[in-house]
Amino acid sequence: ASSLNWRFTVVFVLASLVKTIISIIINEIEYKRYEERTGINRKLSYVNRVIYQPEYGELLRNNGGYRGLLNGYYSYNIKEICLLVKKYHSKLYLLWLLNAVIETLCFRLGPWVICIISLSEGTMTMGQVTVIMNAINFLPNICISLFGSIVDIRKQSLFIENLRYVLEYKVVRTRKQQKRQPKDVPNILEVANASFSYAEASKLVLRN
Length: 208
Known about the structure:
Blueprint: H1 2-52, H2 54-62, H3 64-121, H4 126-167, H5 175-180
Helix pairs in contact: 1-3, 1-4, 3-4
């Protein structure tokens, strides 16, 4: 029984490692899909804002050409999303299925089958099976939690790298641009004779 326990442990650790690798690959694919879809979602959001904002409603009703342009723009981006679905979802579904099969065989169904066979062959007693099955109920969750943390860290690192690129970006100017750059420009922005009020308010919030 002790040797069988060690075999279960090795199988759980190896299965968790394989699941971790598959999950990292899934995160990479999902991140690429996210990057490609972000721009499309922003374009669709722009069309929605224009259509549903009341100040543009009358313009769209009276201008068929502009309305047709927005409809065409919206339909084009919907087709782009459909292409993204075809591009990524088949790979993702296969990886999700493989992950589920590994978890079912190695963590759920497999140990029960091994214990039942060992019990029927007389190589294990009912007490040994009970001890092993109690351990099996906890060990997979520990392995999944441990390796799952690695997957989560890797997933967050993809977005952190993107943020670091933006924060550490340095503008490279050509010699002509450097010559055009004015010297000794004060870091002060001065506004004079400016007034401001909200769209539905009659009273000025800021006057001169």
